[in-house]
Design goal:
Length: 287
């Protein structure tokens, strides 16, 4: 099964089970990837979390039933996963900007989020510069924090972590310690979801270093791999987010490679990260 087909299969599975309790494990299984990697890929491509997509789709369908049927509001609330009319009304108002009763009486406009269909995009207008490299395993040293991926908590916590390492001097220390082939400071996501009740990651801010681990830092071994190394040109964070989306929406669908599932790297080099000329890289292990 190809990469696009497996992702679409997972989306189709969500749609077929919208009226049931769906676990992230069962969704990711349809795409044959880990919970973390499915959630991350989905968010990169759609700019929303899996949970938010399910919520939007349920409230879209609930609005259609309110407008087109005579079913009781309490029955519709229960059907779409809300235990009380109050909880349903609160979520419905936040999403649509009006109450279920107003929707039933056709007062106001409703928002419709349609079923997702993954399409291969071969635009070509914005060329991607990349290379394939093979490296033996290497070591990085740095700091790490654990984040939950539920409700996008990692998307809030990781930028704060970067602010902290710049403020406390850790970022400057990592640049000084670097003695490896890769001369930047790296951001690394390590999936910890296995045997956990919720998707967790360790996020590292580190640098390539060989030798005894310096005081106050920790060591992470990066396994040997074939890597896709993608150039990023432009200010953070917009430039790197754009390239991530290109990789998954354009590059992977048109190549024979798939993500290997081991830790991916964002590599930040010395310089002004908000400059339009800033250079960084994305390293993705391939299979």
């Amino acid at each position: 099964m190809g990469w696009v087909e497996s992702l679409q299969r997972a989306i189709d599975y969500m749609e077929e089970h919208l009226l049931e309790t769906i676990t992230m494990e069962s969704i990711a299984k349809q795409a044959n990837v880990s919970v973390f990697h499915f959630q991350r890929t989905f968010a990169i491509l759609t700019d929303i979390t899996v949970g938010e997509y399910i919520r939007r789709r349920r409230l879209t369908l609930a609005a259609q039933e309110l407008s087109n049927t005579s079913c009781k509001i309490i029955d519709i609330a229960l059907k779409y996963g809300y235990d009380t009319p109050e909880a349903f009304t609160k979520a419905f108002r936040r999403h649509h900007g009006l109450t279920p009763s107003q929707a039933r009486n056709h007062h106001g406009k409703l928002k419709s989020y349609n079923r997702l269909m993954i399409q291969v995009s071969l635009k070509g207008a914005d060329p991607m510069n990349y290379k394939i490299v093979e490296r033996e395993g290497f070591q990085v040293v740095g700091v790490k924090r654990e984040f939950s991926c539920v409700n996008g908590e990692n998307l809030i916590g990781i930028p704060k972590m970067w602010n902290d390492v710049h403020a406390d001097g850790t970022n400057d220390l990592l640049f000084k310690l670097n003695n490896g082939q890769n001369k930047g400071v790296v951001g690394v996501c390590v999936d910890k979801s296995c045997n956990q009740s919720e998707p967790l990651i360790d996020y590292w801010i580190a640098t390539e270093y060989s030798g005894e681990t310096p005081d106050g830092l920790m060591k992470l071994d990066i396994p040997a791999s074939k890597w896709g190394v993608f150039e990023v040109h432009g200010p953070m964070p917009d430039a790197i987010q754009k390239v991530w989306k290109q990789i998954f929406s354009e590059w992977f669908p048109s190549n024979q490679y798939k993500p290997a599932g081991t830790p991916e790297l964002e590599v930040y080099f010395d310089g002004d990260p908000w400059s339009p000329d800033y250079y960084s890289e994305i390293w993705i292990p391939l299979k």
